[in-house]
Write a structure and sequence with these properties.
With 236 residues, the chain is α+β, with helices and mostly antiparallel strands. Helix content is 31%, strand content 20%. The protein is built from seven helices and eight strands, in the order αααββββββαβαβαα. It has helices at residues 2-17, 37-46, 55-67, 176-182, 196-206, 219-224, 226-234; strands at residues 75-80, 90-94, 99-104, 132-142, 145-152, 167-171, 194-195, 211-215. An eight-stranded mixed sheet has the order 3-2-1-8-4-5-6-7. It is globular and about 45 Å long.
Length: 236
């Protein structure tokens, strides 16, 4: 009985959060995007993202950006793991300036797939990537050089990121030369590794509390995500 009451309270609180019927206005009272779908589409087109990733991916990214407590509000990073590793699939956007700052290659985990990212996990030693929303944290120097710690924000999906040492770092296997030789990027142990020559600039740009969204065509994630649940509630 107690468990039923707890589940009911969680469901009601989620309903209250999305009671206005617009998942894009979720978040704190300050710095809200508070945009209609038409306005988000306009922003998507102004930044000229049509050839980079689907509008729905951008819409989900903005909904999570407002839902989770990201302090560095002008920057959002989107990784689209529905694209093959041979394509540029990491995008850093300045929402205030409506500008795409970076578009580059990014690796996925060794056991997530070869060229395509298809298997995901939140478990230690799985060598798999985890989808969902993260907040960027502090930098440090480790075995991969200058690196950025990431904190997963979605329970059961990516919240073990810090204990798994899922970080952003540079890697020599993230390069066009590696693609030419192997027909795919090299793979990490679950980290979103980026080109070595861009790693410091990227890390310094997004560190310290910005939102990072890893999009994946993973049914388990899409079913469990708070953004998906909000959409289902909206359509009740």
């Amino acid at each position: 009985m107690k468990k039923v009451i707890i589940i009911l309270l969680v469901f009601i609180s989620t309903l209250n959060v999305f009671a206005d019927g617009d998942i894009n206005s979720v978040g704190s009272s300050s710095d809200k995007i508070d945009m209609s779908q038409e306005e988000i589409m306009s922003l998507y087109q102004q930044i000229e993202l049509e050839d980079d990733f689907a509008f729905e991916t951008f819409q989900r990214a903005l909904a999570g950006y407002e839902t989770y407590p990201c302090e560095k509000k002008e920057i959002i990073t989107i990784i689209d793991y529905t694209k093959p590793s041979t394509e540029e699939r990491l995008f850093i956007i300045n929402l205030e300036k409506k500008e795409l700052l970076f578009k580059t290659l990014v690796a996925h985990g060794k056991n997530t797939g070869l060229n395509l990212a298809v298997n995901f996990s939140n478990t230690g030693s799985s060598l798999k990537s985890s989808p969902g929303f993260y907040i960027t944290a502090e930098t440090y120097h480790g075995k991969h050089g200058y690196s950025l710690r990431l904190d997963g924000l979605e329970k059961g999906i990516n919240d073990n990121a810090r204990t798994r040492a899922i970080v952003m770092h540079g890697a020599n296997y993230v390069s066009k030369d590696f693609i030419k030789a192997h027909m795919r990027l090299g793979r990490s142990w679950g980290c979103p590794a980026v080109p070595v020559e861009l790693s410091k600039e990227i890390i310094d740009l997004i560190k310290g509390g910005s939102c990072l969204y890893i999009h994946a065509n993973d049914e388990n994630y899409l079913d469990q995500s708070i953004i998906s649940k909000a959409k289902k509630i909206k359509n009740l």
